[in-house]
Design a protein that fits this description.
Structural class: alpha/beta
Distance between the termini: 39 Å
Number of domains: 2
Shape: globular
Strand order of the largest sheet: 1-2-4-3
Number of strands: 4
Helix content: 40-55%
Number of helices: 14
Largest sheet: 4 strands, mixed
Strand content: 5-15%
Radius of gyration: 19 Å
Length: 294
């Protein structure tokens, strides 16, 4: 099993410096490596449109701002750091879970859109997706806090990727619950904390609510909710739900991440396991541990 962090630095620089008319095709070529991430998506897929809808860097404005951000990432050694963190994280997970098997993983690391207020504001310049086995996508703006957390962000997505890989925990869209999703986020954060500490490990959007008992109680009322269209509000919070035209439920940004950390910490304390050892732990067991131990 190997992990490849693609050289998107060169590709993005070429795109941003190309004539505007040529950029869509160049971008599509770069994104092609991650097409497999959308293998469950019905119908034809326009990778460029999806990139732009997902807060990816624009191809018709903000070129200088994006090129400057690209050089900031390069100067910080972002690609090399991410590769090293993922290789080290994989070694820890393999040691903790004997017999763990998963496909090779391709990592697509792209700049976000500095003109996207939701991405730069509530999302704090960072979104990640690692839930489809074999692919990780990170959309990133190099705020200093994000650069500090780069390694932790990468291994968070790695934990997702291996938790939901074939032979691991099954994500069935028909039966999966908010609780399953929240526990997955809590475990991924716990793994990042295991490797990089409590300051850098937690996902930034969840940090303000880690100790908010009211937010925690409210999230607990939604753990059995099904229907993936409902997950955004419960996991990411109302700002993201409103952004995508979904129904808000009265939760702040990152509420589900904060609650997931608390659920998982109770379970890890009760069992003595590490987050790496709990890679395939059943979410219902993790939730039950909190209900038992309060």
């Amino acid at each position: 099993m190997s992990i490849t962090v693609l050289d998107t630095y060169s590709a993005m620089k070429k795109i941003l410096q190309a004539p505007v008319a040529d950029r869509a095709d160049l971008l599509r070529s770069m994104l092609e490596a991650n097409r497999g991430m959308y293998r469950y998506h019905p119908g034809e897929l326009d990778l460029v449109a999806l990139h732009l809808q997902s807060s990816g860097f624009p191809i018709d404005r903000d070129e200088e701002r994006c090129l400057d951000a690209l050089e900031t990432l390069a100067a910080a050694g972002a690609w090399e750091r991410m590769q090293r963190a993922l290789d080290e994280g994989l070694a820890v997970l393999l040691e903790a879970t004997p017999g763990l098997e998963a496909p090779d993983i391709t990592v697509l690391f792209v700049l976000g859109d500095p003109g996207d207020e939701h991405f730069m504001g509530p999302c704090k310049g960072l979104t990640g997706f690692g839930g489809i086995s074999g692919h990780i996508a990170l959309t990133f703006w190099p705020f200093p806090e994000n650069l500090e957390r780069l390694e932790a962000t990468a291994v968070h997505e790695l934990h997702h990727n291996l938790r939901w890989a074939p032979g691991g925990v099954v994500w069935d869209p028909m039966t999966v619950t908010v609780g399953d999703h929240i526990v997955g986020e809590g475990l991924a954060d716990a793994f990042a904390r295991q490797l990089y500490g409590d300051e850098l490990g937690p996902t930034r959007i969840g940090v303000p609510h880690l100790h908010d008992d009211e937010v925690f109680k409210k999230v607990l009322t939604g753990l059995d909710v099904t229907g993936m269209e409902n997950f955004t509000a419960w996991v990411h919070g109302d700002p993201s739900a409103e952004r995508f035209g979904l129904t808000p439920v009265g939760l702040p940004m990152g509420a589900g991440y904060a609650a997931g950390n608390r659920l998982v910490d109770t379970y890890l304390a009760a069992t003595g396991k590490t987050a790496a050892q709990a890679l395939h732990a059943d979410s219902s067991e993790i939730i039950a541990a909190t209900l038992r131990h309060g």
